[in-house]
């Protein structure tokens, strides 16, 4: 089991380059199998979730050729199986995108039903509602979602909750359905737009992605394309809060500043300086941080995937801050870990009440999930003394070379896998 060991207390200073968006890439890789021609995808993040999905795609017979660390060629012409096993779904819920991709292309898909996950219950009723509206039969048998259709026909679909996954899955099926689909109350996240752009580059006809009404005119088939994935707004935001919490000065490069507006707004509210460039943002934290209130919302609201990172930062800000988590019910699991580092946060239902403390002190903590794990690393970087973060396998699901990028900013952090290595690190950093 690998761990991060961190000696905190240094302000992080310098430049960091952000990779491709994991959540866009997961959907785009699934959509890539919807043509029989070869698709080239660039700016792919080299993280665990992506590599597992590539294995799942290979597992059903697609050809996957890794050109380099961030580029892959996919050819879905030889797919012989429309069944995605629980093994993959258990590792990454986003394999459910293969449901929409396979249903659209082959009119049949069987995908293991995803269970709950660390951040709470994750229903897929809206995905199913959309598939049914387009003419598919959907049933659940032996832990599988089995969906098939004689023909898929465009329809009017209204989502009862704004769901990124359902929006993308329904968009994929509608792209290869007959006639027009109007998807209302759609998610507006940057990665929804990226997937629509990708499908359009393959010959789909999707308009309105990025607004809450998406109009899709079905086409008969999709063709080859070359496509580069957008930068990861959550990776970028994580480094922006690392600057804030460590009193640092970080220029986050290769980003689309517009996608970071909710994060930027909160950083300004708590007293950081944020400078925007064409494809970079600089965050400087030189004054005492102030408290604020945050409510997670669908885009363009404040992202739930950035909630733990702002919480550890507010934990070091003057006064009392309140966070309301309105997307997932179980996203405060880092709070008990942070308490071990001296944080003062009380959770009541979907609300966290944070009383700022003057410092965290290093402790042994465990990453409860991907983003909370990254947030605990930020806490460790800001803390006095040494922090050991266990279960970093969660963090590796979504951050490429996290420790190397942090070291490039002056952090003292190492990936270790034994008590002996932790001991050596302690001796080294003194
Ligand atoms: C995606 C992201 C995840 C992010 C989340 C919200 C990926 C791979 N994951 O997850 O990192 O935290 O968006 O921005 O892109 N819901 C239903 N029924 C459904 C689907 C969703 O009730 O059929 C609810 C969920 O329980 C949740 C809300 O809708 O409360 C939003 O979920 P959704 O946007 O679907 O999240 P994911 O696509 O799973």
Number of helices: 15
The assigned structural class equals alpha/beta
Bound ligands: uridine-diphosphate-N-acetylglucosamine
What is the rounded Rg?
A: 22 Å
- Look at the structure and name the CATH superfamily of the largest domain: Enolpyruvate transferase domain
| Strands side by side in the biggest sheet | 22-23-1-24
Q: Could you describe the largest sheet, including whether it forms a barrel?
A: 4 strands, mixed
Q: Provide the β-strand percentage band.
A: 15-25%
The outline comes out as globular
- Subunit organisation of the chains: single chain
CATH domain fold name of the largest domain: UDP-n-acetylglucosamine1-carboxyvinyl-transferase, Chain
Low-confidence blocks of residues: none
What does this structure look like?
The protein is built from 15 helices and 24 strands. The chain is α/β, with parallel strands linked by helices. It folds into 2 domains: 3-19 and 231-429, Alpha-beta prism (UDP-n-acetylglucosamine1-carboxyvinyl-transferase, Chain); 22-217, Enolpyruvate transferase domain (UDP-n-acetylglucosamine1-carboxyvinyl-transferase, Chain), CATH 3.65.10. β22, α12 and β23 form a beta-alpha-beta unit. The longest helix has 14 residues, at 233-246. The site of uridine-diphosphate-N-acetylglucosamine has 20 residues, from α1, α5 and α6.
